[in-house]
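Q: How do we represent a protein-ligand complex in a form that can be generated token by token?
A: Start from the inputs.
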Amino acid sequence: MASFKDLKKIYSIMKDVNIKDILKFIEKNPKLLKQFSKQKEPELNLNSDFYNIFHNLSPEDNTIRLKVRNFMDTEVKPIINDYWYKDEFPHDLIPLLKDLDICGLAYKGYGCQNKSTLLDGIVSAELARIDPSLSTFMGVHSGLAMGSIYLCGSEEQKEYWLPKMREMQIIGSFGLTEPLVGSAVAGGLTTTCKKNNDGTWTLNGQKKWIGNSTFSDITIIWARDIDTSDVKGFIVEASNEGFNVEKIEGKVSLKIVQNGLITLDNCIIDEKDRLQNANSFKDTAKVLKMTRAGVAWQSVGLSMGAYETTVKYCNERKQFGKTIDSFQLTQSALANMLGDLTAMQNMVYQLSLLQDRNEMSDEQASLAKVWISKGMRRIVSTGRELFGGNGILLEYDIAKYMADAEALYSYEGTAQINELIVGRSITGKQAFV
Ligand SMILES: Cc1cc2nc3c(=O)[nH]c(=O)nc-3n(C[C@H](O)[C@H](O)[C@H](O)COP(=O)(O)OP(=O)(O)OC[C@H]3O[C@@H](n4cnc5c(N)ncnc54)[C@H](O)[C@@H]3O)c2cc1C
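Then emit the structure tokens for the protein with flavin-adenine dinucleotide bound:
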């Protein structure tokens, strides 16, 4: 079927044909006119959920997801790059985040909603789709900090802290990593705790990279007991004497997240603030296992945002007289981005189903974290390439996605550490040291 453009060309060379004859011909063939009017402009498909993963949510859960998406699109997207540029946290958004009611979504009791970890993960993805920093802020508060109390606290501790944290009256952070001990935290923590004669505990040491800690009300501090060598967890309030936080400056990734270097200098903590069910690093690991799928979902969300931004840009940017999405090489790059993204979504979706059935193993969580965060890196790198020079400007968003991806790639277990966990399950051989 010839297009209007083709007809125009034909008409321009039909010098001796009378236009009236053409019009008469069209009048006699009304079907022809209908066919022309049916021809549509090419439609852009911005859908980054290509295999309809979100269709698996119940209508009620999907409403929660859409509420978060709408909030991120309308309240966060227009203002967030400015905060990123200035390394500032948007404190004014906390009451709005509170209204979304998404803290402790998957926990049972203590005012929490007892939703699936699948929905919890999808909500993290929706946050990261627009801003990976806000998603990380929530991951630390709702996942790591609330999760430590939920999994390792006594009933009394849970009753006291979790409702306030769910309401965001209290903001939490999670202090495990140290300046000299990152990947090796399982056996190498140097921060110490010692039980005093009056039943209190004295904490000494340093914690590095602790997200939210510059303004959080409490930090979960993990420390090794000098007397027993066991790892214990403590709920340390920011007002505690001997607890000091210095903001880590000069980050080029997740710049909105306020990471702190914490110094504990003879910090005295009551026994009532020791996590009563944290008796060894195995308990710390339970918290990390629970949140690892959340980091995989964050990587998926970041990749969805990067993909959508790229598709839109390629549809608007013109070179050689055509939008760059008309070129075969661009379409190949977009198809590869979507292929990676779709595989990542399906992998983490199945991981969440396993987690919701209580069947998820450490190695399954690790494989998803490492494989999905590698896919995310491929997606942002291809996206950035398709933006040309504009790909390094903050206003085009892709540079922010690319920079933020680097922190997600490294935190909560580097690629190598997660590969070693998977490798151990394949070979039966532990190869960490
Ligand atoms: C933005 C950001 C936010 C963070 N937020 C928090 C937080 O809120 N709370 C918290 O406790 N921590 C936090 N972290 C810390 C994070 O979890 C650590 O950075 C991470 O675990 C890696 O530790 P490391 O940086 O010390 O790297 P290192 O452990 O020093 O690793 C350096 C390199 O060596 C490799 N490596 C190490 N051991 C082995 C081995 N056995 N075999 C092969 N390779 C190996 C690693 O894979 C990596 O490539 C955050 C980090 C970042 C960047």
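The CA atoms of residues 336 and 379 lie 8 Å apart. The domain at 53-150+159-170 is CATH 1.10.540.10 (Butyryl-Coa Dehydrogenase, subunit A; domain 1).
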